[in-house]
Amino acid sequence: MKSIHGSQSGTSGHSYGRQLWVDIRKDWDLYLALIPGIAFLLLFKYTPMYGIVIAFKDFNIYEGISASAWVGLEHFERLISSRGFMQVFRNTLIISLYKILFLFPLPIIVAILMNELKNMIFKRTVQTIVYLPHFLSWVIVSGLFIDLLSVNGGLVNKLIVGLGGEPIRFFLDSDIFRTVLITSAGWKEIGWSTIIYLAAMTGIDPQLYEAAKMDGANKWKQTIHITLPGLIPIITLMFILRLGSLLEAGLEQILVMYNPSVYNVADIIGTYVYRVGLGEQNYSFSTAVGLFESIIAFVLIITGNFLSKKYLQRSIW
Fold first, then answer.
1. In whole angstroms, what is the distance from residue 20 CA to residue 26 CA?
2. How many CA atoms lie within 13 A of 241 on its CB side?
3. Rounded to two decimals, what is the model's pTM?
4. Comparing C-alpha atoms, which of 184, 187, 178 is closest to residue 98?
5. Cα 38 → chain centroid
6. What are the DSSP E strand ranges found in 15-104?
7. CB 297 within 8 A of CB 247
8. What is the pLDDT of residues 77-112, one digit of tens each?
9. pLDDT for res 188
10. 84 exposed, middle or buried (CB, 10 Å; 0-12, 13-18, 19+)?
11. How far is Cα 96 from Cα 312, in angstroms, rounded to an integer?
12. Which residue from 23, 125, 217, 307 could staple onto 221, CB 3.0 to 4.6 Å apart?
């Protein structure tokens, strides 16, 4: 029996290899076009993974990776027992969950509302205005919000003072700063997701809406029973991908907007790695933190995809 199975496996492998070669000869130009992309992935995505070993060594920049002493899980033990890291981890989760709770549904709502606009010129104008902030860097967005919310001459505080109130220190108050983060992230990124959902809506069969109208369904019922079910696949995809970046929490945004006054509520894993790794030159510990973040992100994506496939019959793979 073993020889039969072995023979079948060998034949199957040989047949697959022969078919692959036939496909390559047939579409050689397409396979040739794959080479730059594959080379990019190998060079910039897989080759740097060798650096993960730094997390298990007492890395010395002058001795190099291979000559540095092996310390095993020492940095991970320090990481788990570190009181400062637990605060950072908590901040990361809170900010990410706030962004999911408040910002994830908004593009869907905006896309549904924009899809109902009949005047195409007005629709495209609104679409462009909503979408443009996505192309601004966080440095520019940070400067805009600082100008708007500044205690000294900021437009919002001028309005508050003009109405008889006291100026608010938006960037220095720990109770308000997270709201600033969520608001600025929403202003910048909602347009990008809105375009994705609008594109998905074009794939919904218009005859479904016509049939619903004939049955007396109003706009609300059409949205609930046709539009939202039609968007479920892309919503599932976006949500699973969002879970994968749960511990990212907007590194670039926070890095250019926060300050020591709000470290207690805004210091996240990414900024912590930046400060410890580059500021204190503790490369081994910061690599351990980054590896920990990547493992959690991987587990979240796998789990999210599994649960989605089990309960919603929708998944990425």
1. 10
2. 9
3. 0.79
4. 178
5. 23
6. 57-60, 64-70
7. yes
8. 888 887 778 888 899 999 999 999 999 999 999 999
9. 92
10. exposed
11. 24
12. 217
